[in-house]
Amino acid sequence: MQSLLTELEKIREEARLLVEKRFEEFKKLGESGTEEDLFCELSFCVLTANWSAEGGIKAQGKIGKGFVYMSQEELEKALREVGHRYPQKRAEFIVRNRWLIGRLRDLIKGDPFLSREFLVKSAKGIGWKEASHFLRNTGVEDLAILDKHVLRLMKNHGLIHEIPKGWSKKRYLYAEDILRKVAREFGEPLGKLDLYLWYLVKKKVDK
Question: Taking burial as the number of CB atoms within 10 A of a residue's CB, which of 26, 32, 43, 189 is the most buried?
Answer without folding.
Answer: 43
